[in-house]
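haha ok so turns out i had the wrong file open the whole time. this is the CORRECT one, sorry everyone. sequence first:
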Amino acid sequence: MTRELTTSRSLERTPPGVARDAGWTLIELLVVLSLIMILSSLALTTYRNSIVTAKEAALHSDLFQIRDAIDQYYADKGKYPESLDTLVSEHYIRAIPKDPITNATDTWQTEPAEQDSGAASSSNAGIYNVKSGSPDTALDGSAYQDW
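then structure:
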């Protein structure tokens, strides 16, 4: 019985000044959904940028640690290490860290040290510097390979 009354009431016209018991209109729903979509897209963009920022901070830290280990090796031995594996085997670092951008340990790009003029040309001068092997660019526009 109540169901028939509410159905018949909804068909009647409501007089002016009387509130009707209606739900959301389609336009109101579309406005709310569009606002939710805009806010969620902004949040997703911010989230993705924070992930990239965290990877860049980890790359800075890893580069600092590896370069510091190379400098300590040079200070102790008087020569540069032949490879990053030498730093691990000599216990200057525990393990070669993963490049946070490429997510691999074998993509690090090493720069050889300059040869001494008195040393034989066949001897390995060792590695002087290490850089990321990623071809991508950072959020600030610089290349990761240039860090």
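Residues 62 and 88 are 14 Å apart (CA to CA).
again sry for the mixup
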